[in-house]
Amino acid sequence: MITSTPVAFLMTLFASASVHAVQPVPSSQPAPPAQIGVASFNLAWAGSQQDFDRHAAVCTAVNWCDTRPKREKGQARPTDEAVQAARQCVADTGRLAGGPEKASMMVPCNAYLGRDNAAPPTSADYAAKLAGLQATIADLIEKGGVKVIAFQEVRSAEVIKTLLGKHADRFGTCDAPHDGFQTTAFAWDKSMGETGAKCSVNEDLAVSDNPGAKDAHKVRPGLTLELEWADRRLSFLNVHLKSSCANIVPTPIYQARLLDDPNPACQVLNRQVAPIERWLDSVAQRSPDFVLLGDFNRRIDEEAAANIRPGQVRTDGSNPAGVPPQDANGKVATRYLWQELNDGTRALKQVPLTNVDTGCRGFTGLDHIVLSGALAARQAPEIGSRKTAVVQQPGQRIDTSDHCPRSVTLNF
Predict the structure, then answer these.
(1) Are residues 121 and 397 in contact, defined by beta-carbon separation less than 8 angstroms?
(2) For residue 39, which of 369, 350, 365 has the smallest C-alpha distance?
(3) What is the torsion angle, in degrees rounded to the nearest 10, for the CA atoms of residue 391, residue 397, residue 402 and residue 406?
(4) How many domains does the chain have?
(5) Count of CB atoms within 10 A of residue 119's CB?
(6) 68 found inside a domain
(7) Distance between CA 55 and CA 64 in Å, rounded?
């Protein structure tokens, strides 16, 4: 729980949400369709205050070293010295944390350093981040009418309960147990079905980042939330896919990469394609109304706009319909994620981004909301989604998040 004095002080600073009264519908008019707000929010390594204090104790002892090899600007790959320094950091951090398994449940030492590395972050700095997350979530609920939130980069459902603040009793929560600090989680308004709600973990998405290696880690699992609401079964699929293989349009910073790229990150994302396809097929059979949302770490909007012909989707030119065949390591002959998922065997619709708050910064193009064809058919043609700026105080040393929450209001 967040109980420190800095948090209480910061909560007062952030408390600014207002609740809008709902106007009754005149009896002469037909009742409007049932509506709910749905959001996806990457919380950027969100744990408890105690998680941070443990993190700071270990990281201070290892001089806030970086477990990933540093690559200088213009370098194609890190130097041997940088690789060795990272390996030493991994060894020292693991020893002080109590072993590799416990170290994997700790945030890397560089995670909260941000743009200002003049001094290590303090407990008060982390309290400010948590206060900002709590205020941002309160705004989604109170101002945005959001009733279902898919979270990424969070430690546990217990952290979500804390961040829900005064709304905690209204919402149910669940998470996907994982052997790493980051996982996926849901919060949903209990008015949508407190007893009928069901969460289930998709372990198949947690593929190995290096098949066959003794020190390999698994990437994040997926999480499904099923609700019975408005006389329908609704399913929400929460993903946080492998990072660093994001775009097909090159930028000054990021190289364009397809899913058959030899880059290690692309190879991991490639192995997540078949599990996603099977998951979609399974959910679609029992719940035609579903929402796939989360941090895709892939510009599927760029892929959708690229006018890729079916024969270009797979390297062997085969029809992309159905789950692609996998090799012994789970790799598939797929170049494009969106065209593989939206392959004609099921209809999917990306909800376009139509509104971005002033002050919303951080990663762009990675967080998406995708509707099943059945659900999309009941929406207005001009349906769009919004990115809401996170609540953050001037001079805050640890960013509230490097993602803005993305939300949409859906008709049922």
Answers:
(1) yes
(2) 369
(3) -10
(4) 1
(5) 10
(6) no
(7) 10
- Could you tell me if residue 161 is inside a domain? yes
Residues with Cβ < 8 Å from 124, sequence gap 6 or more?
Answer: 4, 6
Residue 236 · residue 199 · CB < 8 Å: no
Place of tokens 């990072």: 243
What is the Cα–Cα distance from 49 to 12, expressed in whole angstroms? 18
Q: For residue 341, what are the domain limits? A: 5-16+35-47+137-411
Residue 80 lies in a domain: no
> What's the token pair of residue 332?
């598939």
How sure is the predictor about 345, in pLDDT bands with cuts at 50, 70 and 90? confident
C-alpha to C-alpha distance for 184 and 63, rounded to whole angstroms: 30
Is the separation of the CB atoms in 291 and 372 below 8 Å?
Answer: yes
Q: How far apart are CA 184 and CA 199, in angstroms?
A: 11
What pairs with residue 369 in β-bridges?
293
Contact 274, 326 (CB under 8 A): yes
Residues with Cβ within 8 Å of 276's Cβ and at least 6 positions away in sequence, in order, are 205, 222, 239, 341
Q: Return the structure tokens found at 357.
A: 């708050």
pLDDT digits (tens, 9 = 90+) for 243-267: 999 999 999 888 999 999 999 999 9
User: The domain that contains 356 carries what CATH number?
Assistant: 3.60.10.10
pLDDT in tens, 170-205: 999 999 999 999 999 999 999 987 678 999 999 999
Asked whether residue 93 is domain-assigned, the answer is no
- What does pTM read for this prediction? 0.89
